[in-house]
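User: Hi! I'm a student and our assignment asks us to look at how structure tokens line up with a sequence. Could you show me two examples?

Assistant: Happy to help. In each example below, the sequence comes first and the structure tokens follow. Example one:
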Amino acid sequence: MFHRIWDIIEEKHLLKRYGYLTLSLFLAAICYNLLIYPAKIVSGGANGLSIVVETAFGIPPATFILAFSTIILIISFLVLGVEKSSGSVISTFIYPIFVELTSGITTIVDINSNDMILISLFVGIISGWTSGIIYKMGFSNGGISLINQILFEKLHFPLSKSTVLINMIIVALGGIYYGIETILYAMIVLFVSGIIIDRVLLGISNNKMFYIITTKEDEVQKYILNEIGHGVTKFNVVKGYLNNKSQALMTVIPTKEYFKVSEGIKQIDKNAFIVVTDSYQMSNGA
């Protein structure tokens, strides 16, 4: 019985993952045909490359994306194996189909492409959100991402550097065909989409983690415990420059109380050393 219940849960989870993947690919295709393609925003990836290829050789975008992604997928299966490549199979074949099916959307929805900065921001947001959902569900966009993985596995070329390098080459090609302004809009898209992907994968933190080194640790501790109402953890540290021992305080507080805590500590000790980071998950804490 328990095995059956678990199987049902797994099936629902799998359906949810594939549902989100399909929706993300469909929205990405709409974004391509409604904003990216008409505005000729060459911001890297197979999308950007397809725009350049159509201009240079007259190959329809959906046809190029399908052929390009399929070739990369086959190479990936040969080089990386089935396990590391299988997450890109659906994106490789479904996305070009959606691009073709939504290619006439501009006859239904007419977007004024005069404000390129606003369009670039929207493209960055939508591209980042759809890519983030795809990654979060355990899948991949295929295409360029597989090339990056191959370079990492076989040549030990860092993923971050290969991603930037390949995208910059594609962006530069766009600049050659459509002008220098295209590069600037592409940079906006890449910057915004990168931020959105991180936010989708990690979420927007509800808490901040404070690391505090102060000569008035007892007063700071009492302030956090009594005034803010949150717990404090003490641990020993060694200062690297003077090599002397000290104690650090660590506390996690809601983001909305960040300013109150920060200013309160400065009032107690204006020379306190404070490091603040995002905290995405907290359990069993005060």
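Example two works the same way, sequence first and then tokens:
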Amino acid sequence: MDLSIYFTNLPPEMATFIISMLPISELRGAIPVAIGIYHIHPMTAYFIAVVGNMVPVFFILKYINSISKFLMSRSKLFDKFFSWLFARTRRKYNGKFEKWGALALITFVAIPLPITGGWTGALAAFVFGIPMKKALPLITLGVMIAGVIVTGLSLGIISLSL
């Protein structure tokens, strides 16, 4: 899907920034579009995409606790859903996070696959009770690593031959 068609009236740098903020594409979509369609220099594309990807991560980490508490206090449905989701997720993955700690969060965010990335990393940090002061630099490092991988793939420096 060519995301650039939705941003034809914006400067390429602004379109790259916005694409990198979106939850599905994040920088995994923004960097290839920036380099391949907009012909933005790879280092510039990388920088814009990393910064853009981190904007929603910051807000998720800062406000997700307040939002979930608000929703849980206002709705029995949300309370049941969040309680079930948090308990299930902690039960299923807590051992991995306890064993690998910071490396687990960095790696999870750094792997450029669907449903991994900054957004999901921020939600995982919240679910596992990782404080913002610790989670933000870990997620930033993961996003930066993902950016290097995606830039390398976009330039053909890295190949995924199976």
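Here is something you could point out in your write-up. The chain is about 75% helix and 0% strand.
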